[in-house]
Amino acid sequence: MTRILLIDDHTLLRESLVRFLAEAPSLVVAGHCATIPEARAILKDTSIDLILLDYDLGPEPGTDLLHFLRLTANPARVLMLTAGMNPSATLTALSLGAAGIVLKQTGTRDLLEAIRTVVSGGAWWPPETLPTAPQKVPPRTLTERQRQVLRAILDGLSNKEIAARLEVSETAIKASIQELFAKAGVRTRSQLVRAALERYPTTWLP
Description:
Elements: E1 2-7, H1 11-22, E2 27-33, H2 36-45, E3 50-53, E4 56-57, E5 60-61, H3 63-71, E6 77-82, H4 87-95, E7 100-103, H5 108-119, H6 144-154, H7 159-166, H8 170-184, H9 189-198, H10 201-204
Parallel strand pairs: 1-2, 1-3, 3-6, 6-7
Antiparallel strand pairs: 4-5
Helix pairs in contact: 6-8, 7-8, 8-9
């Protein structure tokens, strides 16, 4: 079961989502609240797999919780759930470890798909949520798996061939590629290759 913490200061929306998620297979709403301090208290006492985090929480932006998660080494995955975020806020969320963004106007089917993708280790960054100037995305350190996948892409291998080389599933490879797209602020393989070669040759391709 996937244990979810929902953080949103709009009571009606939050309670509606709690009821919806409670009926979804393999999902359990382990807690819900309206503020960052309440979320910290829940996280100290409750094991959480996924946090659905609104960005606009009044005095404290949702990204403040990402700092807390990093400081406490909390392994919970974070999916921003928002009506909209400016490019700067999106880059902040990305750099602090958020796994994706779901817009509140998104349908429930896409919300469930985003949850399952992120819980399985993937990323969820729809094109409309990414900044329009990807060159402004700050470089981030790659995991060893992401580095292996990037090398295989540079070698011209297909997803199936990469999966065979690394002895993992194609689904896992697709998830790693989506994470690379998000870190580079791009949407296609060709853009990823160009970003790796032109912008991050020393950090991504030692």
